[in-house]
Design a protein that fits this description.
Length: about 625
């Protein structure tokens, strides 16, 4: 067979000590064997591949970066994000689970992943021989560099097999992705899912071994043995129930060595500050460090650009919002002023901003951008739209009656959004089937009570309307509205990985880890779980028949929202993803074994190497 089209020049050279790199083919694996210290340059260059927008198919686009596509392809397929409508950005088909086998997000991601793998292979080929031949005991750099390259090879394969293949729990013999471990690229075949995962585990164990022999090279911009252990604990969760004890043991080891600063309450100020410099904060295990202005060619081409929009400027598109159900989850516990008691929500939840003047502050969102009307609320509820999408109907200017219900008129018909207890929490439901799905809340329609908003822009846009709710989790690094250094691995996930492993074993120790994360977020004592207080969870939420697991999955949803975790967490636990919420996507549910879970492999690869494509699905007309 022909060589995989993704493989190309991937040896790299360092430009500065501030992680500002550019690709180069100056080094070869044979040169590395003669001079292993050169690997610092080629290894540092691999870090650049995560963020570089290289020329691809004769053109260079600012938004065409591996990291941006990985985050978009991962997060958009869950249920945290609601999209306002069709976008020219190629995320639309994957978001709708109407995937196509083209589009720059798919093709560039595939191409770049194997570019990373090829670069790591070349470094490993040279460094492994140097290490095996025996190093000066004082040489702590070479083994660590070797471990870093094993890590890169592992994480790139992990990205590919989790995006472009069916979940591991569907069977080890399912078609995976091409496995590249070595310098022979003469043939291309799809290894099985099991084979790819086995290789990832082996590479991460090698990464741990060699990085433990060496010395970490800097702050959290660089991978470490801790990063390899954290990633391996995640990988074990993907591999069914056979590796739960190994996951727990790894997490125990990590948690015992965790910085004391990550074990206390994270204040609102700390959380708001976090995205501004993730690389030097203890919560971060590994992030991809974007350096301003070199790595910020366009403020509309970042991960944050889809979550945030700044009027009167070119800062962001603001097309991705919090889903209503995620907001409800965060709002279960209230502070004294009626706002969410969850510091995570208060830190990153913001209204769409239409400022009064073109001048806007260098950092942070202003407190007085919008005026919340005292005592007035908007009742919002889903209604069908074209392309199987579901949009929000909203009726503003309402106040509750003595029962806490909202009586309103919609299309000349009077309805009531009745206050109802669901698993101990207040929810509102309309006794009418607006969605057309009789299985959704037993034919009733959920109503979402949101504040009325007056905008102060003087133009009257969306006055008295329900506003889109935006996310500032990837914002305000170096004073740039949509810039951040995205976190790939952090400490909260380690606790949640252990909690998930315990939950799958139906061990109530899972609740201790969940409570740890909730206390860190500032939630009150009444929000904590115990075997005698499960807050209404009964195992029916995601079809897992495991109440402990449902609790963990909801906590992961809140803690790791917008970080690319959600859909994977549901599917690896053989759950069902409920996408029956407002947004430009079909109003439906998706089971873990639905063929649409695996993205279509780019057509360029199919035409070049002849490997087998994934199961077809309905196409969506995009350019």
């Amino acid at each position: 067979m022909k060589k995989i089209f993704a493989i190309g020049i991937a040896l790299l050279a360092l430009v500065s000590c501030k992680m500002d790199f550019y690709p180069s083919d100056a080094m070869t694996s044979s040169a590395l064997k003669e001079n292993p210290s050169s690997a610092v340059y080629t290894t540092d260059g691999i870090y650049a591949l995560f963020k570089d927008n290289l020329e691809y198919k004769g053109t260079t686009e600012a938004g065409n970066t591996y990291l941006r596509h990985i985050f978009q392809l991962s997060e958009s397929r869950g249920d945290n994000v609601t999209v306002s409508g069709y976008s020219e950005d190629p995320f639309t088909p994957p978001y709708r689970y109407e995937d196509v086998d083209y589009g720059k997000n798919k093709t560039y991601t595939w191409w770049m992943a194997y570019k990373i793998i090829n670069a790591a292979n070349s470094n490993i080929d040279g460094l492994q021989q140097a290490v095996d031949a025996g190093l000066d005991p004082s040489d702590k750099q070479t083994p660590h560099l070797l471990g870093e390259n094993y890590f890169f090879r592992a994480i790139a394969h992990f990205h590919m097999v989790t995006l472009f293949a069916m979940p591991y729990v569907c069977g080890r013999d399912q078609l995976g992705v091409p496995l590249r471990r070595g310098m022979d690229y003469s043939t291309t075949t799809r290894a099985s899912v099991g084979e790819v995962f086995d290789a990832i585990v082996e590479d991460l164990k090698s990464a741990i071994k060699y990085m433990d022999m060496g010395t970490p090279r800097g702050d959290a911009s660089y991978v470490s043995a801790t990063a390899a252990r954290a990633l391996l604990s995640r990988v074990y969760l993907f591999m069914g129930d056979d590796h739960l004890e190994e996951c727990i043991a790894l997490c125990d080891e990590l948690i015992n060595s965790a910085p004391a600063s990550v074990k206390g309450v994270y204040t609102l100020t700390q959380l708001q500050d976090y995205p501004k410099h993730t690389w030097d904060q203890n919560e971060t295990i590994w992030c991809v460090h974007f350096v301003y202005p070199t790595d910020h060619p366009s403020p509309e081409a970042t991960i944050g650009s889809m979550y945030l929009c700044q009027e009167y400027s070119t800062n962001g598109w603001g097309e991705w919002y919090y889903s209503d159900e995620l907001i409800e989850l965060f709002n279960r516990y209230k502070a004294a002023d009626g706002s969410s008691a969850d510091n995570r929500f208060k830190a990153y939840f913001t209204f769409k901003w239409y400022p009064t003047t073109p001048e806007w502050p260098a950092t942070g969102m202003p407190e007085n951008t919008v005026e919340l009307k005292n005592g007035k609320q908007t009742v919002c509820f889903p209604v069908p739209f074209e392309n199987d999408a579901c949009y929000t109907a909203h009726v503003p200017g309402l106040t509750p009656n003595a029962n806490g219900d909202y009586v309103f008129t919609y299309n000349d018909v009077q309805y009531t959004a009745k206050k109802t207890k669901v698993n101990g929490y207040d929810r509102w439901f309309i006794d009418h089937n607006f969605t057309g799905d009789p299985t959704f809340w037993n034919g009733k329609t959920p109503a979402y009570i949101r504040p009325d908003i007056d905008e102060l822009d003087g133009w009257g846009f969306r006055t008295d309307m329900y506003m889109p709710y935006m996310n500032s989790k990837f914002a305000w690094q170096d004073g740039q509205a949509t810039m951040s250094s995205p976190v790939m691995l952090r400490w909260a996930e380690v606790w949640l990985n252990r909690a998930e492993a315990y939950a799958r074993k139906k061990d109530t120790k899972a609740l201790e880890d969940v409570n740890f994360i909730r206390r860190r977020a500032g939630l009150p004592s009444e929000a904590m779980f115990s075997s005698g207080e499960m807050h209404g969870y009964d195992g029916s939420l995601y079809g897992t028949d495991n109440a402990l697991l449902d609790i963990v999955l909801d906590e992961r949803r809140m803690e790791l929202c917008f970080e690319g975790d959600r859909a994977f967490s549901i599917f690896r636990n053989k759950g069902t993803l409920d996408r029956r919420y407002v947004g430009y996507h079909p109003f439906t549910t998706i089971k873990y074994d639905d063929v649409r879970v695996a993205l279509l492999i780019p057509s360029d690869e199919i035409l070049t190497s002849g490997i087998e494509q994934n199961a077809p699905r309905s196409a969506f007309d995009v350019e």
